[in-house]
Specification:
There is one protein chain. By secondary structure, this protein is an all-alpha fold. The protein contains 30 helices and 2 strands. The chain has a domain of 250 residues. The chain has a two-stranded antiparallel sheet with strand order 1-2.
């Protein structure tokens, strides 16, 4: 009865899905991102799996007069809705042999080939007409490091799909789509290098040229002559405004005035105009008079101009649905530090900032009065960016060993489980690096191991995992075994270890815990662990392995993934897998979806990528539903401003 790792199998039971409450306040939409995933998990495994802490809404601590106004910025991307029942891009392709094929597509140049990419011929078996909609549908805003890395490899791999004889030229070339997707992923360097190898593709495609330029503006690494050269063949006002920006940035006052006069005559209502006036030496406009939402089409350019003109962005003007824009705001020194950190955390959640940049933002938030002494009390009321910043600052000042353990524990506890694998988790792991895995830190060991496993830092994870085992087996420690197996591959063929873990994990497990255990079994099975029928029956009360047929995904995508993998079509398998994972990624999707994606990636030879996806998914559910309180240490009397 063991379920196939690549194909769905029928489920013995069916559970009515739970509804998802709709957000009533736009700013809170991002905080409800886990809602659909829980409902979908209920369909596959039973009752919903709690993936987030009980406190769902993050608010900042009530500020004193000297602290900037509270910034309520959800740390997680907006809510992810289930895919539509029928997708325009996932109809099952006709067998390639039905039509004669001509020459390969000319945009097959890439920066990666062989084992660095996806092999020598990733697009074997799929024609260009079938491939282009898949490339266009690839996600860009994802919290998963593995998804972004795999998508980058896909887009940078050398290889051309076949073109059917007599096929009409597409409206957009494959090379242009690849360049645009790389830019929107947050990899302008890769996009620019690929554009250098495919100049004709970029020269005829303004959306790709603008996406690349916007990404460079957000990153702060714009090469003005090169950017202006790529816009020479386009007539939109974007490039005229870019020319004005470049002249102002280089100090060309006469050129700036001339370009500004043209802008005044042609675009008097453009929100870029008052900022351009400030670039030319006029008084800067009031920040609250700017409408960032009104200039969504040229937002990256406007934000770069604000940074040059030293104009801040108020917290209530943040474009919460534009994660690259939030990254640009986070790097604007004129924005108040609390707003910068809040925007930066949200951008980092989808990997548009890294852990080091996030730590730098944390260090700039001013602590007021004795806040560093009261950080644990503050954390009880607020789980937002400012609290995490205070924890980091308190850790930097702490000298007492017990105090450092408590602060590291608090930093780990404040990380949303869905963000453990990315930069937010990485920033907390940076604090954890300052604590040794010794007996004094035994209570912290399971949570520390879980975070390091999520980050893929296996040596550190093993040391903390060993400490947890030496300190005595517990339910919390038992949850680490499947995470260690999928992260390291060790113990995968030890049926006794599986049985011992299940016995410990099921002891006192309620319905929600059993659902999470079923998800773990599906993920283990996807990486090659043999799960006996008896284990499935015990965990699911006789329902058996989940089929995934009710996981809320497009059935055509579900089927196409298996067909592509069975046919050895590597590129198509990866593209469909990435679309299935979508903006949610393995941290939010029901485990059965991630398991199926991983099993099919493994089937086409991408086992490291499959294992990394499973590790990210397992890190979310491999732990207790509630945080274990860490006792407050009694620090030695010191003059250092440290936490409780």
């Amino acid at each position: 009865m063991s379920a196939s790792r690549a194909e769905p199998r029928p489920s013995a039971g069916k559970v009515r899905p739970q509804g998802v409450r709709q957000a009533t306040v736009p700013l809170l939409a991002g905080l409800l991102a886990a809602g659909w995933s829980m409902a979908a998990a209920a369909q596959a495994f039973g009752p919903p799996v709690r993936l987030t802490p009980d406190a769902a809404v993050e608010t900042l601590v009530q500020s004193r007069p000297s602290i900037p106004a509270p910034v309520i910025v959800p740390a997680y991307p907006p809510i992810v809705t289930p895919p539509p029942a029928v997708s325009p891009v996932v109809a099952r392709p006709a067998p390639v042999a039905r039509e004669p094929l001509g020459a390969p597509d000319p945009d097959g140049a890439g920066l990666l080939d062989g084992v660095q990419g996806l092999g020598g011929d990733p697009w074997r078996g799929i024609g260009r007409a079938e491939l282009l909609p898949l490339i266009a549908a690839l996600p860009v805003d994802t919290p998963s490091p593995t998804v972004k890395t795999l998508e980058r490899r896909l887009l940078l791999s050398a290889g051309s799909p076949a073109v059917a004889t007599g096929e009409a030229p597409p409206s957009r070339r494959l090379g242009a789509l690849r360049i645009e997707k790389l830019a929107r992923l947050g990899d302008p360097a890769g996009a620019a290098e690929l554009a250098g190898r495919l100049p004709a593709a970029l020269a005829a495609d303004e959306p790709a040229a603008r996406a690349l330029t916007d990404a460079e503006l957000v990153r702060g690494g714009l090469d003005c002559p090169r950017a202006l050269a790529r816009g020479k063949s386009f007539a939109s006002a974007y490039w005229a405004k870019l020319g004005l920006f470049c002249r102002a940035r280089s100090g060309d006052r006469a050129g700036t005035d001339e370009a500004l006069a043209v802008l005044r005559d042609s675009r008097r209502s453009d929100p870029f105009l008052p900022v351009a006036e400030a670039l030319a030496g006029a008084a800067p406009p009031p920040a609250r008079s700017l409408s960032l939402q009104a200039d969504a089409d040229g937002l990256a350019l406007l934000l770069a101009a604000l940074r040059i003109a030293r104009i801040g962005v108020p917290p209530d003007r943040l474009p919460l649905d534009n994660l690259p824009a939030l990254a640009a705001i986070a790097t604007n020194p004129a924005v108040d530090p609390t707003t910068r950190a809040a925007a930066g955390e949200r951008a980092a959640a989808s990997l548009f900032l890294d852990a080091r940049q996030l730590q730098d933002l944390y260090a700039q938030i001013p602590a007021v009065g004795d806040e560093l002494l009261r950080v644990r009390d503050i954390a009880r009321r607020d789980r937002g960016a400012r609290t995490r910043a205070l924890v980091h600052q308190a850790m930097a000042a702490a000298m007492d060993g017990r105090l450092r353990v408590a602060l590291a524990a608090l930093a780990v506890e404040l990380v949303d489980p869905r963000l453990r694998a990315g930069p937010v988790g990485g920033a907390a792991a940076g604090l954890l690096d300052g604590v040794s895995p010794t007996g004094d830190a035994a209570l912290l060991a399971p949570a520390a191991a879980r975070l390091y496993y999520a980050q893929g830092r296996l040596d550190q994870a093993r040391r903390w995992h060993d400490l947890a085992l030496r300190s005595g087996r517990s339910a919390d420690t038992a949850w680490l075994w499947p995470l260690a197996v999928v992260a390291t591959g060790q113990g995968a063929q030890d049926p006794r270890a599986l049985t011992e873990w299940l016995d410990e994990a099921l002891r006192g497990a309620d319905t929600a815990a059993r659902s999470r255990i079923a998800g773990q079994l599906a993920l283990l099975q996807a990486t090659g662990v043999a799960v006996p029928d008896a284990a499935w029956m015990t965990v699911t009360d006789g329902a058996g392995p989940p089929s995934g047929s009710e996981a809320g995904v497009d059935p055509a995508l579900w089927q196409r993934l298996g067909d592509a993998a069975a046919g050895g079509r590597i590129g198509e398998t990866v593209a469909v897998a990435l679309i299935l994972l979508g903006k949610a990624g393995p941290a939010i999707l029901p485990p059965v979806v991630t398991a199926r994606v991983a099993a099919n990636l493994k089937a086409v030879g991408l086992e490291p990528d499959a294992r990394a996806l499973v590790r990210e998914a397992m890190a979310v559910i491999a732990g207790p539903t509630a945080h274990t309180p860490i006792p407050n240490p009694t620090p030695n009397p010191t003059p250092n401003p440290t936490a409780e």
